[in-house]
Amino acid sequence: MSPNNLLMKLLIVVHHRFDLWNAPGWFAPRLRSEFPEIEIVHSESYDGIEDDLASAEVFFTFLLRPEQFATAKKLRWLHAPTAAVHQLLFPEFVNSDVLLTNAREVHAPVVAEHVIAMIFALAKKIPEAALLQQKHLWGQSEIWHRSSHPREVNGATLGLVGLGSIGRHVAERASGLGMRIIAVREHSEKELPHGVQQVFAPPDLDQLLSQSDYVVLAAPLTAATRGLMNAERFAAMKSSACLINVGRGPLIDETALATALRSNQIAGAALDVFEQEPLPSESPLWDLPNLLITPHTAALTDKLWERHYALLSENLRRYVALQPLLDVVDKQKGY
Q1: Which of 15, 262, 296, 314 is catalytic?
Q2: What's the per-residue H, E or C state across the chain?
Q3: Residue 1: inside a domain, yes or no?
Q4: Of the residues 107, 185, 248, 308, which is catalytic?
Q5: What pLDDT score does 5 carry?
Q6: Are residues 117 and 249 in the same domain?
Q7: Taking residues 68-81, what's their average pLDDT?
Q8: Of 21, 71, 172, 196, whose CB is crowded by the most CB atoms within 10 A?
């Protein structure tokens, strides 16, 4: 028991330069009202958290450094309000008994909507039309005579690289649009998710690339997936195909992508994540006419913190009741 006779301590530390990623003022008070038996400490800074971290059993955070973990003697569960957890997977934490959960089901439905929006934007040449509008130009002929024509989404083949939460939600939505969906995942022998018609093992990625009109990267960042899309992989894609990345920036060799887009080796791309964020102003990616850039906005929603609250509160109820938690991460695999 903690000194004030409460059941345990939950420490919330989520500090980010982008205000939406920071827990709103109502978040901790609402938790205290629902869980009066839990001591809940909310800090808006990582500075001076050592004492609270030393006595916390549950930690809600983006980041945990090895030296901080060494002092967190009572820590039993860490919840990350992100889908990606590679930033937490240092050896001491991976090899510990501390549970790790993430927010993949918070973000996945929202990111899936963004993927569908990018598919339509690329298919219907929306970015080109927006640029022509700014110039007051009626560009019907120009849009039609570009290297790739406007096209129908119905009947197109969508190749999913990764069938985790995001991939499954994308497949569900894309199947409703009449798309043929194929995928690559580590365990290709598992039952096919809703809407997916064929699954390849990772060594057969080129087979997926050669068939796909749209390739969506939704894989976690691991040693095996870093630099996954390189010059050889772009060569395996159709010249009419488009690439969409909502996973992590380092999944792509950005220099190779720029070369493939410049030479029209592939028709287009839409990137929401980048190797360096914010994307530097001098990056050559900004000036590629067949690349649509969104500034890591795929997961943005005005319902974000309600979604975070629903998951955390449900998992707190499960934790106190000694029931299995939702969205547990396999720390050894990294997802």
Answers
A1: 296
A2: CCCCCCCEEEEEECCCCCHHHCCCCCHHHHHHHHCCCEEEEEECCCCCCHHHHHHCCEEEECCCCHHHHHHCCCCCEEECCCCCCHHHCCHHHHCCCCEEECCHHHHHHHHHHHHHHHHHHHHCCHHHHHHHHHCCCCCHHHHHCCCCCCCCCCCCEEEEECCCHHHHHHHHHHHCCCCEEEEECCCCCCCCCCCCCEEECHHHHHHHHHHCCEEEECCCCCCCCCCCECHHHHHHCCCCCEEEECCCHHHECHHHHHHHHHCCCCCEEEECCCCCCCCCCCCHHHHCCCEEECCCCCCCCCCHHHHHHHHHHHHHHHHHCCCCCCCECCCCCCC
A3: no
A4: 248
A5: 55
A6: yes
A7: 97
A8: 196
**277 labelled catalytic:** yes
Confidence (pLDDT) at 148: 87
86: annotated active-site residue = no
CATH code assigned at 204: 3.40.50.720
At residue 2 the predicted structure's pLDDT band, cuts being 50, 70 and 90, is very low
Residues 97 and 130 in one domain: no
Spot the catalytic one: 16, 277, 306, 317: 277
Is the CB of residue 122 less than 8 Å from the CB of residue 145?
no
Taking 50 as the threshold, does the pLDDT of residue 3 lie above it? no
- Within this chain, do residues 263 and 287 fall inside the same structural domain, yes or no? yes
For the cut 80, the answer to whether the pLDDT of residue 287 exceeds it is yes
Query: Structurally, how many domains does the chain consist of?
Result: 2
Mark whether 248 is an active-site residue: yes
Mean pLDDT, rounded, for 267-281: 97
* Residue 334 in domain: no
Q: Tell me whether residue 40 is in a domain.
A: yes
Residue 278 is part of which domain span? 107-293
